[in-house]
Write the structure tokens for this entry.
Amino acid sequence: MTLTVSMTVNGESVSADVEPRTLLVQMLREHLGLTGTHVGCDTSQCGTCVVHVNGESLKSCTMLAVQAEGADVTTIEGVADGETLHPMQQAFHENHGLQCGFCTPGMIMSSLDLVKNNPDPSEREIREWLEGNLCRCTGYHNIVKSIDAGAKAMRS
Amino acid sequence: MYNFEYKKAGSVAEAASIIGADADAKLVAGGMTYIPTLKQRLAAPTTVVDMNGLGDLAGISVAGDTVTIGAMTRHAAVACSADVAAAIPALADLAGHIGDPQVRNRGTIGGSIANNDPAADYPAGLVGLGATVKTNRREVGADDFFIDMFETALEQDEIVTSVSFPKPVKAAYMKFPNPASRYAITGVFVAQAHDGVRVAVTGAGPCVFRVAAMEAALSSNWSADAVADISVSADGLNEDIHASAEYRAHLITVMAKRAVAKAG
């Protein structure tokens, strides 16, 4: 049995026929082809699958697609303005905030939720906020620098 | 994940009638435990009843010395609530250290306590403060609500609707978190509660429990020193790759001392 699920993803109305057990991340990647959202651990710990649903960051591997019916979803593909990187993406680029890059979409989506509520986070606040985002290249130092720089750029 | 029927609940009564008629139909609230459980095929429900559309189950209100939190209130909402921070700061602090920000944006108090994971934080908060759980059928005191590992006093068609917390004189929660999941390897909630001193331990045993010896000691001398020499037996405590039963027993005393010091 499939259900038709409709939502707004990166400003566009989309719909797909999914099973009740289809995860939001599966719908994004496999039905909509938005493969910027990654699946790392698949156990809600690593944070590579973080997207925004109705403005809040959450782990799309731990939400059913049907639960996002009618929701406004933003993925990493919806962050840049055309060819112009979002200030947070640009900050990751300039501060070498990635090595392999696998965790980066989740890091950026998570950090944008942090900055939304806390435009000038301290280093400690950034590190605490990244509790749910793992980087296995152990690149946290530059990721924290990137988020600090990105937040600064977004303030100006 | 095995497949299932999906039903978005329109009311508590509708959800109760579905799970009352079918023992294999289950509720999902935030899904922070239940969806991973489904993914591991540890559960095979016929129908998943989604409580997320029930906005009237979410919200925080303060009346007199009582803070009432709706069952579908997210951990992030409790952590950020100025009302909770003013009335029971230890409860806001507890909610703000559950999982990670994305888990807190989704997980709910009702889901957490109905699931009764032995390492969940909220059971310690409820028992430590002497809270009352309200369901669609009755009110149950926290001491009687948590029965055993993943087991509560809830009947098959019973649904948590809110939890009421009496304001304590002072309280604090300290946990030794698992470094990956932030579940409590051992967490201790201490309070000078409305009905006396309470010391509630989560993570260490199969289910939240109180430590009478610590409560008696703290009743006559509210200080970290009062509990420093009180040890809890390792018999029956949890043992896994993260910590032995003896280690957890040791942590109970350490976390109790730190919680009392934090409460001031």
About this structure: The interface with chain B takes residues 1, 3, 19-21, 23, 42-45, 47, 50, 56-59, 62-64, 66-67, 110, 113-114, 129, 131-133 of chain A (CB under 8 Å). The first strand of chain A starts at residue 3 and ends at 9.
